[in-house]
Amino acid sequence: MSPKPNSIASRDIAYCLHPYTNARAHEKKGPLVITHGKGIEVFDDQGKSYIEGMAGLWSTSLGFSEERLVEAAAKQMRALPFYHGFTHKTAIPAVELSEKLIAMAPVPMSKVIFANSGSEANDTIVKLVWYYNNALGRPEKKKIISRVKGYHGVTVATASMTGLPVNQTDFDLPINNILHTSCPHYWRFGKEGESEEAFASRMACELEEMILSEGPETIAAFIGEPVMGAGGVIIPPATYWEKIQTVLRKHDILLIADEVICGFGRTGNSFGSQTFGIEPDIMSMAKALSSSYLPISAVMLNDKFYQVIADNSDKIGVLGHGFTYSGHPVCAAVALETLKIYEERNLFAQVAETGAHLQNRLAAFKDHPLVGEVRGIGLIAGVELVQNKRTKESFSPAGKVGTYLNERAVEEGLIIRNMGDTIAFCPPLIITDDQIDQMIGRFAKALEKTL
Ligand code: PLP
After folding, report:
1. Are residue 49 and residue 76 in the same domain, yes or no?
2. Can you give the residue range of the structural domain that contains 442?
3. What is the pLDDT of residues 172-224, one digit of tens each?
């Protein structure tokens, strides 16, 4: 049905170009217009409610109606709506937030620099890594290794690190100096009879072979999400991170943890790095940092890295990087309040419990004829649909069945996300066991309609 003339939907079709949307299909289909939210639910312009099973974009951790965040923003906006951090200036929220993040870090960290999105945080890291190696007099040590199916953003550099074809096709990407190593998805890529640990060893060996064939003196850093999100919720196999880190240390390669999804409780700890024993040199975070109520991201660096950057800024005269909105006081105030709420409500420990409930409920779908694998940890999970359960053969064309199921879920009042034929769940951290049961009930109905 085409939208009524002059409705929001028809004006959307007339004026908006949507991210991650087939523009031609959108001209016919039009948007789902979301008008407001309450708790874990959002409502459309017809008054229909949806459980937001993806917390927006893996991000609205405190749900859609946390008044304290509204108040924190209003209070800061009245006091000082904008200030910046350029040329020795600062505003109080940015200082307090930096201090808090350093205190929460999984390993000793030294400094924080802010940006506005996950992409900008990771882009900042790429630049700082290059700056660092130039400062150390090793300009050839510039390559960054990421992984097939990794997701690190959509700027020129971060889309190059992202290991998904759709982010590079016809954008003239990737840029030089970006390499991709294998995706550590054991269920999909493990060999017949290979244990999870043996698979992890093979991944680490492949990485080392890549490093040796390129020359370790040319490799600056490795970037990875503790759990891959947009690539299909891929949980690292046992011993994977420990083995990868051994290789990186051996060849003096920096480790960047992209905590944009995993940060702030998603896996049951403050950071995914703690869950998987990752000891990064540099970390990026965004999304749940402010429960996505306002855009803010952060890069945290260790002291070894910071000291080199600091010396180089002294030599050049200034650190020539920063955004107008880096450390925006209103965004930082909202982020600080978000972190305070996490702490007061002991929310990360609660995720360990509700997460176990989510994973148990989803595990029941393992026997469903369309389901190849159910995987997850904490409050993040993926259900991969397959054409053939025994051979793991995927559907062709990829994503058609996942998209169909996604649309059936919307009919049932559930918003989830299909990455190809993997259905992702990443609900707000405030979700209760009862609400998880409701979410699963709606998913089950949508899955039945898909069969
Ligand atoms: N890194 C990861 C792991 C992400 O999942 C995302 C976005 O989903 C990004 C980076 C990019 O963040 P943004 O969309 O805020 O630029």
Report:
1. no
2. 32-65+346-450
3. 999 999 999 999 999 999 999 999 999 999 999 999 999 999 999 999 999 99
Asked if 137 and 257 sit in the same domain, the reply is: yes
Instruction: Quote the CA–CA distance of 3 and 6 in Å, as a whole number.
Output: 9
pLDDT of residue 1: 67
Q: Which of 289, 314, 344 is the last residue of a domain?
A: 344
Ligand 1 lined by 151 (C-beta under 6 Å): yes
> Do 382 and 425 form a contact (C-beta atoms < 8 A)?
yes
Q: Report CA(4)–ligand 1 centroid distance (Å).
A: 35
Residue given tokens 């680490």 in the structure block: 204
Amino acid residing at 312: N
- Give distance in angstroms: CA of 151 to centre of ligand 1: 7
For ligand 1, say whether the CB of 260 is within 6 Å of any of its atoms: yes
Q: Is 14 exposed, middle or buried (0-12, 13-18, 19+ CB in 10 A)?
A: exposed
148: left (phi over 0), alpha (psi -120 to 50) or beta: beta
Q: What is the dihedral of CA 187, 443, 426, 223, to 10 degrees?
A: 30
Whole-number Å distance between alpha carbons of 120 and 101? 18
Q: Are residues 157 and 46 in the same domain?
A: no
pLDDT tens across 357-391, in order? 999 999 999 999 999 999 999 999 999 999 999 99
Instruction: Please work out whether the CB of residue 262 comes within 6 Å of at least one atom of ligand 1.
Output: no
Residue 226 CB less than 6 A away from ligand 1: no
Instruction: State the average pLDDT over residues 323-333.
Output: 98
Please give the distance, rounded to the nearest whole angstrom, from the Cα atom of residue 260 to the centre of ligand 1: 6
Give domain status of residue 8, yes or no: no
Residue 327's SS3 state is coil
Q: 395 CA distance to ligand 1 centroid (A)? A: 27
Ligand 1 proximity of 119 Cβ (cutoff 6 Å): yes
Q: pLDDT digits over 223-236, tens only?
A: 999 999 999 999 99
If one counts the domains in the chain, the total is 2
Please state, in angstroms and rounded to a whole number, the distance separating the CA atoms of residues 232 and 421.
9
ipTM here: 1.00
